[in-house]
Amino acid sequence: MENKKEIKVIDQIFSCYNELFDAEKRVADYILENSDKVIEMTVSELADASEASNATIVRVCKKCGCKGFHHLKIKMAKETTDSEKKYPMILISMTLSSHFIIFCQTNMKN
């Protein structure tokens, strides 16, 4: 079985950005700047927010490797969930490290 790692939506947008037309770049910019909002939007809402047509939204999604807007939203939501699962461990690790350093500094002074 092949272990194929999927490219994140944000990375896909960056990789195809220079090939996009101006209206498509507005959509891409909006997605990049508001990824948390886009997950909850409809095609029409994104079109209004980015001043583009529904068809432009779908074209951007396809140019970035997704089957359509719904697929883009699913991938973005999954990526958000995956990163949220990883982040608490980093925060806990940093907090424990900080406490350990403070503990060592305090005990070295005494």
UniProtKB/TrEMBL annotation:
InterPro entries for the chain: Homeodomain-like_sf, HTH_RpiR, RpiR-like, WH-like_DNA-bd_sf
UniProt-listed PROSITE patterns: HTH_RPIR
Which Gene3D superfamilies would you find in this protein's record? Winged helix-like DNA-binding domain superfamily/Winged helix DNA-binding domain
Q: Which residue intervals define the domain HTH rpiR-type in the entry?
A: 7-83
A GO molecular function held by the record: DNA binding
Q: What is this protein called?
A: Transcriptional regulator, RpiR family
Query: Which species does this protein come from?
Result: Propionispira arboris
